[in-house]
Write a structure and sequence with these properties.
138 residues; mainly alpha
């Protein structure tokens, strides 16, 4: 999270989101290449850093569009939905591992990380958010 907090303001939101998706894709795909405990010791921490960066960018972007008067409620709703999604995804990933194995599952999850890239084309700079300009680059 600390890395994302330092890099996000310098890159801007759109570039941060794209970099987070590619970093997450790389980290998740690398998990499919673990063939030994030594490889795991190298790749798993990289995945942890990538996940922390991705989450930092996701929450910063989500809260950027929140009215500050209801920010705590919006954050609680965001966390609830994210946790429900995580619970569902864990079950689906477990079923995929049982059916196809770990390597295939991590490769699929890596590709799934990139599915949101086409949606970035729909991101537009709002005229104003609570009287302040949004920091989403066109």
């Amino acid at each position: 999270g600390w890395i994302g907090g330092k890099i996000n303001p310098k890159l801007g939101v759109r570039k941060s989101v794209i970099s987070a998706m590619w970093l997450s894709f790389a980290a998740t795909t690398l998990l499919a290449l673990i063939l030994s405990p030594v490889a795991a010791w190298i790749i798993v921490p990289f995945f942890g850093i990538a996940f922390g960066y991705y989450e930092t960018i996701f929450f910063a972007l989500s809260m950027q569009f929140t009215d500050s008067r209801i920010a705590a409620s919006m954050f609680a709703i965001l966390m609830a939905i994210a946790n429900i999604g995580t619970g569902i995804a864990l079950g689906l990933a477990g079923a995929l591992v049982d059916a196809a194995g770990y390597r295939f599952t991590f490769l699929v999850l890596g590709v799934v990380n990139l599915l949101a890239i086409p949606l970035l084309g729909f991101m537009r700079k709002p005229a104003s958010i609570q009287g302040q300009e949004a920091i989403i680059e066109a």
